[in-house]
TrEMBL record:
This is Retrovirus-related pol polyprotein from transposon opus. Residues 1-22, 101-113, 144-158 have a biased composition (Polar residues). Residues 1-23, 97-158 are annotated as: Disordered.
Length: 158
C-alpha cells in the first residue's frame, strides 16, 4: 500500500511483508500489462487508426447525414471543424467519413457498382425417385410432407 499501517493488532516488528513496493518498477509493470492488453484487444477486433484528415478534404458527417469539407483541425484530439452548407460544426473523427470530390465515400469506390450473380447450388438428383408434393389442406398454410427416404437422406417438399 505504500504506507505504514496503523493497527491495534499485535504484530512482529520484523514482518517480511511490511516493506513498501518498488513503485517505479510496479508502475512500469502495470503499464506493460495495460499496453499488452490493448494490443491484444486491437489485434482481436481488427481495430485500426483512421487516417488523418487535411484542410479542404471532403467528408460526410454521419450524424447529420450531409456532406462538408474540413475547415480546420480542432485543438482536441481527433476533432475537426467542418464547414457544411448550413454552417460550421465540430465533429470527432469517428463521425466523419472521408469522401472524394464527387461525394462518394472512398470505401464505396472500391466496391463494384453492379452486384455479381451468385451461382445457385444444384443438388444431385437421385435416380428412380420422384418427390411428391402434397396439396395444401388450407389456402393460408402449406402442408409439409416427407417425399422419400433413400440413402439416409430425407427430402422435404412444400
Amino acid at each position: 500500500m505504500g504506507r505504514k499501517l496503523n493497527t491495534t493488532l499485535p504484530s512482529l516488528r520484523t514482518n517480511p511483508h511490511s516493506q513498501s513496493p518498488n513503485l517505479p518498477l510496479l508502475y512500469d509493470k502495470e503499464q506493460w500489462y495495460r499496453d499488452n492488453q490493448s494490443n491484444a484487444y486491437n489485434r482481436r477486433h481488427a481495430a485500426r487508426q483512421a487516417p488523418e484528415l487535411h484542410l479542404g478534404d471532403s467528408v460526410y458527417i454521419k450524424d447529420l447525414g450531409r456532406p462538408g469539407s474540413v475547415a480546420a483541425q480542432h485543438h482536441n484530439p481527433w476533432s475537426y471543424i467542418v464547414l457544411t452548407d448550413q454552417g460550421t460544426v465540430r465533429r470527432n473523427r469517428s463521425h466523419l467519413v472521408a469522401t472524394d470530390a464527387s461525394g462518394q465515400s472512398q470505401s464505396d469506390s472500391m466496391t463494384p457498382k453492379t452486384p455479381t450473380p451468385v451461382p445457385r447450388a444444384v443438388s444431385p438428383a437421385v435416380s428412380g425417385s420422384t418427390p411428391t408434393v402434397a396439396e395444401p389442406s388450407s389456402p393460408g398454410r402449406p402442408q409439409v410432407t416427407r417425399s422419400f427416404h433413400q440413402r439416409n437422406l430425407t427430402f422435404r417438399s412444400l
